[in-house]
Each structure stands twice: as structure tokens, then as C-alpha cells.
Amino acid sequence: MQDYALEDRTMGRVIAEKAKRIPQKTFLIWKDQKTTYGEVETITNRYANGFAARGVRHGDHVAIMLPNCPEFFWTVWGLNKLGAVAVPINTAAKGELLRYFLEKSEATAFIVDEEWNDRIAAIRDELPLVRRYYIHGQNTSGWIASNNTSSVHPLSSIESDDTSQPPPDRVAYDDTQLIMFTSGTTGPSKGVQCPHSQGHAVGRALTLNFGYRDDDVLYTCLPLFHGNAAYYSVYAALWADAAIALAPRFSATRFWDDIRSTGATQFNTLGAMTNIIWKLPPGPHERETRLRLCMAVPVPEEIYKEFQERFGVTLTSVFAMTENFAMTTFTPDDPAEKAGSAGKPRGECELRIVDDEGHDLPPHGVGEIYMRPLKPGSMMKGYYKMPKETAREFDNGWFKTGDRGYLDEDGYLYFMDRKKEAIRRRGENISAYEVELILCRHPAIHEVAAIPVASELSEDDVMVYVVLKPGESMTHADVVNFSSEHMSYFMVPRFVEFIEKLPKTASEKLEKYKLKLDAQERRAQLWDREKEGIVVKR
User: Fold this and answer.
1) What contacts 24+ positions apart, CB below 8 Å, involve 357-362?
2) d(Cα 341, Cα 339) in Å, to the nearest integer?
3) Higher-confidence residue: 144 or 382?
4) Identical fold at 30-173 and 195-418?
5) How many CB atoms are closer than 10 A to CB 161?
6) Where residue 456 falls among pLDDT bands split at 50, 70, 90?
7) Domain extents for the chain?
8) Which of the listed CATH numbers 3.40.605.10, 3.40.50.300, 3.10.310.30, 3.40.50.12780 matches domain 195-418?
9) pLDDT above 60 (res 175)
């Protein structure tokens, strides 16, 4: 592993060093195309210079809403070489949530795939700050600027200039590289300001702790706008001088073909992915691979031994957040009896388990997980233009994760649940607050409470309790259809229940635990859109 001093942990300097030292080494495998580290340097320089020629400057915010594709790397890293801030947008975002992301991030340009023309057209008049649109795809004829101050260009025009020399290097390791939005567990989504050095802290730690090598191929089918793919696959590959094999999305039927064709040696799974892969029909194709490692979040304790034996891999894991890094790692060298844990800190941070009164708990005491970084540049700079929210998350230098768990006597962390109001579905953290906020915009709805209901595939499905305004009426399907129009597909409720009033305390605080118990007891009787045959499109 090539190490880098803290001041050199910028995308521009890391890519340039690798292009000089290992120019012919493959970095990216995408379908039938391979791109070397040397080519990455050239392409990203062209993108950087192309953006600069069109007025993008150090500190500008540029939103990016692209599917998994090579252009995702080129745009983000090209912008980063200028010191511009990339704002990855969840490709499922639409309506009010998409407008919120663009407005809150103060993006002045928007790089977006042609597939989402209709979504942008629906909100374009509400985006006065966005002055330029860059369209990824073959057809830009349907894209019409909303006012006289914005313009539309094909993304391909950015690289058309033969300007492959690196731009002037004016970027510092602690400059903001990305604004990545959280799931908004206790309120509106927060824009996490990630410095250049944060992703490199992740890549360095994973390479050292998991033993990644320069002959590894790290496969990811997870979306690049998520921290898992961006930090825990891509940056790990960069730090190991390894290759990243990128797939458009997770497909159970295509998974093993992808693993074989790319020569993958490692892959990550999130939540239900692990069970889906485990439940695939077994066969010799599972062992006709180069696989040796799998990072599963969480480690499947019940099938820990069987999973490794069946697929010929060693399981690893982490406990991490968008705001920081791999606070703990479960490594290939950890004992099998610690399976089910997220590992332990490896010198990057300290952990505490704290009760509701702020007192430290002994081993096996369940409380909120507090963390404190031990190395500079490994954590967020704060939430963008949300100083009160930023301050609220810290307690005398300790970051309050909002998650609950316990440490055993050997310092291994066991995650229990989320103290914050989040619903975990298919690897996505869903804000109950945002589901409620969007649904309450329906003119017939008075109040909404969103809760998690255990899914058959592990993790959660979304359920909403809906209180209608006096004299109004809606069907269960009406709630689903409105949700489908105004929120990301993975947020759309599966279960819907109409209720006269929500249970509350004397001080009007919502008692969601009562709703969770009610849903659990009546699970078989709940109105279920899947049983009704209602399909939500992406």
C-alpha cells in the first residue's frame, strides 16, 4: 500500500501519484471496458478543465444525479480537482425531496441523466440557483431551460476539449469534497460536509485492516451516491492500488455472472442483500470465482460459518456513518465467536456507551454509541449551513451517533437499534419524518405517523398510520399513489392504516411504540400493497 501524508490526501494528488507510478494498472472495470490509472488522470483532467472553462470555480457546489457509470467518477473527481464541491443526489429522489436537496445544498449546476427529465421539469421553476444543467445521455432535445439565466448542455461536451494537463492545484486536504445527505432521521435531511481526507481515511483503514492487495478486484453494485460504494469500495480500491468492478445495480440473477466475468475478489453487501444471495439456488458456479472476502453489514451471525464455507469467502464488517468513517472493523483475523459484532476500534477513534443521563455504561450495558476521532481529517466538517444541528450532535468533543449498542469486555461493538427515527429498508435509511412531512401535504390528510415493520427479508418495511381531516376520504391505494408521486420509491409505504387519532402523551408527544406494538400484533390483518398487487416503479 502506498501511504500519503495528510496534506496529500486530495483526489487530485492521489490520482496524479498513481498515474505516475502505476499508469498501466487497471482501475475501473465497467461492462467490457477497462480504464487504467493513467487514463483516469487524463480523463479527470479534461473534465476539470472543461468545467473550469464553463465557469466552475473553487468552492462552487455542483449536484450530480447519475446512475452507476464511469461518468460518475469523472465528474466528481474532475470537480474535486478544481476544489469544487460535488453533491451526489439519490437517484430515487423526486418532487419535494429532490427540490429540497438542490435548494439546501445551494447547487449552481446540476449534472443529471436524461432518464429523469420529467422529474426535473416538474421542479425546474423552483430552482433559481441552478444556472447550468449538464445532461448525461444521447438526447437533450427535451431539456428546455426554465428561465433566461439557466442553460442546458450535453455532459459529453465537458470532455470534448483536448485539455488533459492538470489544472492548477489549489486544493487542501480539509477542503470540502462532497456534500452527502443523511437520511434525516430526526428532522430534514442534513448535508454532511465531507473533506477530501475523509474518504481517504476510510480507504486507508480498510486496506490495512482487511488486507486488500494490488491484485484485488473490489466489486460493487451499490449506488455510487451512497457512502458504502463511494468510500468502502472505491476508496479502498484506490488505496490498495487495486481495481474496482462497477455494476449498474444489484441483480440477484446476474450477481454470480458479474463476479466471474470481472474476476472479483471482494464484494460488499448491505442488509437484505446478504440473505438474498444466501437464498439463491446453490451450484458449482458459486465457487468458480476468485472471491476471498465479503464485507457484510451487518455480519450474518446465524449463517456466519455456513456463508463462508459455501461461497469460499472470509466475512468482514464495519460500523460507520456518513458523518465519519469505519469506527470499528471486524477483520479476517477476528475470532469466530465475535461474529455478530461490528468489530472493534483499530486506533482511529474511541468509543463510549452512554445512558440517557450521559453516564458511561459498563460492558454489555446498552446505550447510545458515542465516538471521538483520534486522527485529523477523518470526519465531517459539520452539516452544511446547519450550525445548531451540528452543535447538537457533539458533547465535549464526542460525536453522538444516535445509534444504540453495547461493548463487550474485549471492546467489540454490538449494534442494537437506532435511537433516531429511521427506518431501514433494502439498505436505505428512510427518514420517518420526511415520509410524514410529504404525506401531510395531501389536502385530505391531517396527521401521519411512519413506523418500521419487520420485513420477511430482514430489515424493515414502511408503515404509515394516517389521520384524515374531518369530512375527507381516501383509500389505502390513494395514499400509496400519492406517495409514489412525491417521494423516492423505497420510501413508499407498504402498509397503510387509517386511524381516528394518533396516540400521544399529555404533552402531545407521539407514542410511536404503541403503534409499533399494534402493527406487530395485527401484522397479518394489515392492508398490504404487495398483497394488493400494487407495484411501485423506480
Assistant:
1) 358/395, 361/406
2) 5
3) 382
4) yes
5) 12
6) confident
7) 30-173, 195-418, 423-528
8) 3.40.50.12780
9) yes
60 vs 369: CA distance, rounded Å = 35
- Rounded to whole angstroms, how far apart are CA atoms 468 and 498? 8
The answer to whether 464 touches 497, Cβ cutoff 8 Å, is yes
For cell 488486507, the residue is 211
User: For the domain 423-528, what is the CATH superfamily, name and number?
Assistant: ANL, C-terminal domain (3.30.300.30)
Torsion over CA: 392, 393, 399, 405 (sign): positive
Q: Is-contact 141 94, C-beta < 8 A?
A: no
Taking alpha carbons only, the member of 259, 327, 253, 328 closest to residue 294 is 259
The Cα–Cα gap between 373 and 379 comes to: 7
Determine if residue 104 is left, alpha or beta; phi over 0 gives left, psi from -120 to 50 gives alpha, anything else beta: alpha
pLDDT recorded at residue 470: 92
When pLDDT is averaged across residues 416-440 and rounded to a whole number, the result is: 77
In DSSP terms, which residues pair with 243 in a beta bridge?
217
pTM here?
Answer: 0.84
With CA atoms as reference, report the closest residue to 164 among 50, 58, 248: 50
Contacts of residues 17-24 at CB distance under 8 Å and 24 or more positions apart, as own/partner, are 18/238, 18/241, 22/214, 22/241
Give CA 485 to chain center in angstroms: 22
Q: Helix or strand or coil: residue 382?
A: coil
Architecture of domain 30-173: 3-Layer(aba) Sandwich (3.40)
Look at residue 262 and give its three-state secondary structure: helix
Name the nearest CA neighbour of 90 among 215, 257, 229, 207.
Answer: 229
Distance CA 344, CA 53 (A): 47
β partners of residue 112: 65, 135
End-to-end CA, the chain = 40
Which residues are bridge partners to 383 per DSSP? 192
Phi and psi for 292 in degrees, rounded to 5?
A: -140, -15
Instruction: Enumerate residues 6+ apart whose C-beta is below 8 A from 524.
Output: none
For the record, the C-alpha cell of 371 comes out as 465516538
C-alpha closest to that of 318 among 184, 205, 185: 205
Q: Are 194 and 379 in contact (CB under 8 A)?
A: no
Residue 176 and residue 11: Cα distance in Å, rounded?
Answer: 11
108: cell is: 449552481
